[in-house]
Amino acid sequence: MPLNVSLVSADAEVWSGEASIVVAKTVLGEIGFMPGHEPVLAILAEGQVRITETSGTKIVANAQDGFLSMEGDDLTIVAGNAALIS
């Protein structure tokens, strides 16, 4: 079962879809998420969010000023600023 991921900025949805793994930078360091991960609520640090879709396609976004929340297989990343870079 994949992760259901939503990456949003203050003014728009940046990316949403299914992923096999997501790596994001928090104020305590990088953290990786896969299906079945324990629930997490963390403060987002400025840096890259790296998403690997279930197809294997890699998505990279810059994000800063926000938080991320993992509950079940739903990962939500809310950033003040976020934009895809590839």
TrEMBL record:
What is the protein named? F0F1 ATP synthase subunit epsilon
A single Pfam family it belongs to is ATP-synt_DE_N
Q: Does the keyword Nucleotide-binding apply?
A: no
Q: Which domain of life is it from?
A: Bacteria
The ATP synthase F1 complex delta/epsilon subunit N-terminal domain sits at: 3-82
Q: Where in the cell is it found?
A: Cell membrane
Membrane topology reported for the UniProt record: Peripheral membrane protein
Annotated family: Belongs to the ATPase epsilon chain family.
Which keywords does this Swiss-Prot/TrEMBL entry list? ATP synthesis, CF(1), Ion transport, Membrane, Transport
Query: Source species, please?
Result: Microbacterium koreense
InterPro entries, alphabetically? ATP_synth_F1_dsu/esu, ATP_synth_F1_dsu/esu_N, ATPsynth_dsu/esu_N
Q: Which Gene3D superfamilies match?
A: F0F1 ATP synthase delta/epsilon subunit, N-terminal
State if Ion transport is listed as a keyword: yes
What coarse category fits the chief subcellular location reported for this protein? membrane
